[in-house]
Amino acid sequence: LLHRRPEDAIPLFRRALELYVALDDVTWQLRCYVNIGLANARAENRPAAESSYAAAQTLGRQVKVPQVVG
């Protein structure tokens, strides 16, 4: 879905993000933000992709995840 119809994947990743926020699961929240960014990039929505990547980076810094912080 991410590769063939990224615009359809975005709402699913957003819903997953909501669930992981409710569960306070930061690792999966980060994955969701990155996947939302990837889906938006594939859908050629660069501003939304950059926003998702920035959210992942901010969260990664807060919880000190070096793979995301860069």
Radius of gyration: 12 Å
Major β-sheet profile: none
What is the number of E strands? Answer: 0
* Fraction of helical residues: over 70%
Q: How would you spell out the order of helices and strands?
A: HHHH
| Broad shape | globular
Spans of at least 5 consecutive residues whose pLDDT stays below 50 are none
Mean pLDDT comes to 92
Structural category is mainly alpha
Into which percentage range does the β-strand content fall?
A: under 5%
Number of separate helices: 4
In angstroms, what separates the terminal alpha carbons? 28 Å
Q: What can you tell me about this protein's structure?
A:
α1 runs antiparallel to α2 and α2 (26-42) runs antiparallel to α3 (46-62). The protein starts with 5 loop residues before the first helix and ends with a helix. The longest helix has 17 residues, at 6-22. The protein has helices at residues 6-22, 26-42, 46-62, 66-69. It is built from four helices and no strands. It is mainly α and 70 residues long.
Task: Provide the descriptors you would attach to this structure in a database record.
4 helices; globular; 70 residues; mainly alpha; single chain
